[in-house]
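Problem 12. The chain below contains 478 residues. Write out its predicted structure in token notation.
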Amino acid sequence: MKKAGTVLSQLSSRWTFAQWQAIPKARSCRAFHSSDHLAAVKPFILADIGEGIKEVQIIQWFVQPGARVEQFDKICEVQSDKASVDITSRFDGVIKKLHHETDAMAQVGKPLCDIDIQGDIDPADEKLITPEPEQAGKPNEAQQPQKAAERAQPKEAYSEPPQVQPQSRPQSSRASASLATPAVRGLLKGLNVKIEDVYGTGRDGRVLKEDVHKFAATRDRSLAIGDGHSQQTKRPSVDEGPQRESKIALTPVQSAMFKAMTRSLSIPHFLFADELNLSALSSLRKTLNNLPGSSPKLSYLPFVIKALSLALFDFPLLNSRVDTTEEGPPQLVIRDKHNIGVAMDTPQGLLVPNMKNVASLSVYEIAEQLLYLQAQAKASKLTSKELTGGTITVSNIGSIGGTYVTPLIVQNEVAILAMGKSRVVPAFDDSGEVVKRTVGNFSWSADHRVIDGATLARMGEKVRTYIEEPGLMAAGLR
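Solution.
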């Protein structure tokens, strides 16, 4: 101790006050702990959007690197097997990187983009910036995108045709010029049309199927007519070498249809078709549509949906589903609500939304529901609730064409009805006179594992009774 005191005495005589101040001093206070403050770039994770969806397709980005976003600002629009969804930000910050290009597939549980988050973060939102590899979706083979092979252009054996001028569009819509669904983009490739040349008439300038077909038809007419004078073209040589093929990835809706129809092939279908007399229903429909203030205008479909619902009260077996999830023998699950699905041709492809509890709806209310679902489908705004929970399906393929149909049963259902095109034919009345008659073919398919032919035929006859004598529908209303 004495020696140590001597050393300190010598040092104190040599060091200045500033040197003493520079010596680190032990801190007796404890560090103050606060909540995490995010000042670093973090990945923004694509959260689970429900319905067992494992991957989605990027339709469009609303932001670019360097853009500042706030909570609830739109980041991107994605397309799943079911519908399109807008992904919004949960944080305030600056976008640093986009992990996917437009039309690319993004996995649930993987990063969508990187955000420089500014401010504190709620612990409940921590999972949105923390990847969990075990929860990430694994792409199904049918959903895996493929790079389209470039089609080699054969040498022309005739003079160069005139070029079609791109359709003019307002300058303000250029930012929306590339908006289109995957199905439309596939059509563009098939018709060899650039999306920038097509004027989109859909929502926010979105290019629709009709826009592409209209542009292609105008182009083809210009190629045939030329610049105002006839051009004689040579017939292309028949021997042009081997067949050339190109691969196009399935769209999300096509992938869902691929999987659903593959599962449908495992169901033994019992088919039943019959011709119905629509004359009385046609007369009633015209009378109702001519009433003052009648809205909406009625087609055959609302009456058929109502007749189907009324018949289900007598044959509830056709409103059931087969349950094979539990151990033991399969079971039938009878459902009391008539959630009738309607197959619709949309810009994205075939979709089957359903209207809930049809038994409680009038014919006019069913028609209004149909108009609403058709508008939602055309705008790609159908919700998961509207696309799930159906109990039996109707396909009005006759509105496009065709007389006889072989419909395929939808998952979790045991029956489906398809309507052929209505037509006027000569027929004999009760007195033997030849009269005009409006007829239409109804085609049924049922799961023959649980529905026998006699039950389906009786169900078909019950629906026929309501259709051919529509006044009986009033007696059966509940």
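Discussion. Confidence is low (pLDDT under 50) at residues 1-9, 24-38, 134-162, 168-177. Students who got a different answer should revisit the alignment rule from Section 12.3.
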